Amino acid sequence: MAGPLGVVLCGGSSRRMGADKASLVGPGGRTMAQVVSAALRAAGVVEVLSVGARPGVPTGADHALDDDRPGSGPLAAIATAARHRPGRRLLVAACDLPQLDPTGLAELLARPAGDRDVVVPELAGRPQWSCVVVGPGAAAALEGPVVAGERALGPGLALAGRVVTVPVEDGQGWSDADRPEDLPAGWTGPPGPAVRRDPLPPG
């Protein structure tokens, strides 16, 4: 069986941020999407896809996918990745996690989980839906909730599989950056040079 697939969710309107979050540039000149892609790789995924990135935004992913249902939310974006890479276990992260720690992600991947399990980190009793591990069976089942109109990530994933929570430590970068005041020091814009959008090979 192929190894875990990393998925970076880059869609969304970024209204509260006032700029495309995936394209914000941090220390070292990397975009936020590139930082998240690097964290997924360091956690142990064998391939990274970005979904919904705007043209010209460097994501650090191996392949950039357009969202099959743009504007339909993160659940639909995960379903897009599942359709393009069926049968894969997915490690999914939103693009707005500038301090994401690969150690915490690796702990999620190491959690024994079944085909229909959805593993979510739980911080102080609250699920952190910005990062999830989705089993192959649950990923394939996402189409049902999406077609039914479900947009919320937590309820949609619960309809597709069995949610398993894993207690995690504070300080591992689970908090997302929705507004400018949420950004760590050193983050700014504009986006860097254009990324090439290669056709996704079958697999």
| Order of H and E elements | EHEEHEHEEEHHHE
| Number of distinct beta strands | 8
Fill in the CATH topology.
Spore Coat Polysaccharide Biosynthesis Protein SpsA, Chain A
- Mind telling me the CATH class? Alpha Beta
**Tally of separate domains:** 1
Describe this entry's structure for a reader:
With 203 residues, the protein is of the alpha/beta class. The protein has one domain (5-182): Alpha-Beta Complex (Spore Coat Polysaccharide Biosynthesis Protein SpsA, Chain A). The protein has 6 helices and 8 strands, in the order βαββαβαβββαααβ. It has helices spanning 32-43, 74-84, 102-110, 136-141, 143-147, 153-160, and strands spanning 5-9, 47-51, 63-65, 90-94, 117-123, 126-127, 131-134, 162-167. Strands 1, 2, 3, 4, 5, 6, 7 and 8 form an 8-stranded mixed beta sheet that branches. Strand 5 and strand 6 form a beta hairpin. Helix 1 packs across helix 3 (102-110). The longest helix is centred in the first third of the chain and has 12 residues, at 32-43. Residues 190-199 have low confidence and may be disordered.
